[in-house]
Design brief:
A two-stranded antiparallel sheet has the order 1-2. 72% of the residues lie in helices and 3% in strands. The protein has helices spanning 17-37, 49-52, 55-67, 69-90, 93-117, 124-146, 153-170, 172-182, 192-196, and strands at residues 41-43, 46-47. The model has no long low-confidence stretch (mean pLDDT 85). The two termini are 13 Å apart. It is mainly α and 197 residues long. α3 (55-67) packs across α5 (93-117).
Length: 197
């Protein structure tokens, strides 16, 4: 594992205007869909949102790998703004507020961890960043959205977290495929060895 400092923003090509819109739209769509799906339990331990929400970390991680942490944070903020707006339409205000808070904190944590580990083996940054961010996201979201409502939110949160951990592992394959397709590293870029490994 490399111990060098995280890459600087000058090491990455910025996304095109069309790509910026695509990244933000992907993020907003995942957040809005998840806020709607979280209202539908599969059983006492799990909601459908547990399977869609981890895709937000996939979007952030691929953007981070391709365009660097600054652009990943920008996409997270745009996804937050648009996602909360859509969530207010698709879900209750309380769920939208809880989702927005949890989303922003977790996404920024994921970006920071990913950037710290970006020079390690290709799977470490997306996996460890997603796992840590999932814990924070789940704790914030379920406590703010459901505490005091009679919903068994602790049980749902535990089931949600297990599903997010499983999804973090399953999404490594699409992460690697997307990075190989979208990344355009320069010969001196910090991620050149990680794209093809």
């Amino acid at each position: 594992m490399h111990t060098a400092a995280p890459a600087s923003t000058s090491d990455f090509a910025p996304p095109t205007p069309v790509a910026r819109v695509a990244w933000a739209a992907a993020m907003a769509g995942v957040v809005a869909l998840s806020n709607w799906l979280v209202q539908y339990p599969i059983n006492d331990w799990l909601t459908w949102g547990a399977f869609s929400y981890p895709i937000a970390f996939l979007v952030t991680d691929v953007c981070n790998r391709c365009h660097g942490p600054r652009h990943a944070r920008v996409i997270a903020v745009w996804g937050f703004v648009v996602g909360v707006g859509l969530s207010l339409w698709l879900a209750s205000p309380r769920i939208a507020a809880a989702s927005g808070t949890a989303f922003l904190v977790a996404q920024l944590l994921d970006v920071a961890i990913f950037n710290r580990l970006r020079r390690a083996s290709w799977w470490k940054a997306p996996l460890l960043g997603s796992l840590a961010a999932s814990v924070i996201d789940t704790a914030i979201f379920f406590s703010l959205a459901f505490a005091g409502t009679g919903v068994p939110w602790v049980t749902l949160a535990l089931g949600d977290l297990v599903a997010k951990f499983a999804m973090a592992g399953l999404l490594l394959a699409p992460y690697r495929a997307l990075v190989r397709r979208l990344a355009a590293p320069t010969p001196s870029g910090p991620d050149r060895e990680n794209v093809t490994q």
